[in-house]
Amino acid sequence: MRTQSPLSPLMIDCLLESLPLDITIIDRDDKVIAWTIKDRKLFKIKDEVMGTDIRECHSVKSMGILENLLSEMKEGKCDSTRVVKDIEKNGKLRRFMTQYIALRDDDGHYLGCMEVDMDLSDIPILRDEDSPY
């Protein structure tokens, strides 16, 4: 991020909390170390999850995919992946996008991973001829 001066922790917190998505951050040892909390839109996280292994937050069904992804990110074979899935929430079918992004330092060393979840259900799909842009 390019800035005129370093962003204060308050500014960074406000920036992250105002994004229309949920962010969960894990460290290089796969421990949950942070998440956005303000009006968490998609998946609620209990405070007890802080410091636990990310695998404890995912279903057994998705474990193989998660293991493979984390391994590839740590080995430098993959920097991000994204999936779109339909999930029932509060009796309604909702479309969610989940993106996993490797966090790396300037030398490319793996520092951890960011999971970004976004509800796509209410985003209108415009064709080129309908777009005002």
How would you portray this structure in words?
A hairpin with a 4-residue loop joins strand 1 and strand 2. The chain starts with 8 loop residues before the first helix and ends in a 14-residue tail after the last strand. The chain has a single domain (19-123), classed as Beta-Lactamase. The chain has a 5-stranded antiparallel sheet, with helices on one face. With 133 residues, it is of the alpha+beta class. 17% of the residues lie in helices and 32% in strands. It is globular, with a radius of gyration of 17 Å. The mean pLDDT is 87.
User: What number is the mean pLDDT?
Assistant: 87
| CATH classification, class level | Alpha Beta
Summing up helix and strand content along with how strands pair, one would put the structural category as alpha+beta
Q: Helical proportion?
A: 10-25%
Whole-number count of domains: 1
Q: Can you tell me the CATH superfamily?
A: PAS domain
Proportion of beta-strand residues: 25-35%
Order of helices and strands: HEEHEEE
Q: How many H/I helical runs?
A: 2
Which strands sit side by side, in order, in the main sheet? 2-1-5-4-3
Largest sheet: 5 strands, antiparallel
Morphology: globular
Radius of gyration: 17 Å
Secondary-structure blueprint of this entry?
Layout: H1 9-18, E1 22-27, E2 32-35, H2 63-74, E3 80-89, E4 92-104, E5 110-119
Antiparallel strand pairs: 1-2, 1-5, 3-4, 4-5
List keywords for this structure.
133 residues; globular; alpha+beta; Beta-Lactamase; 2 helices
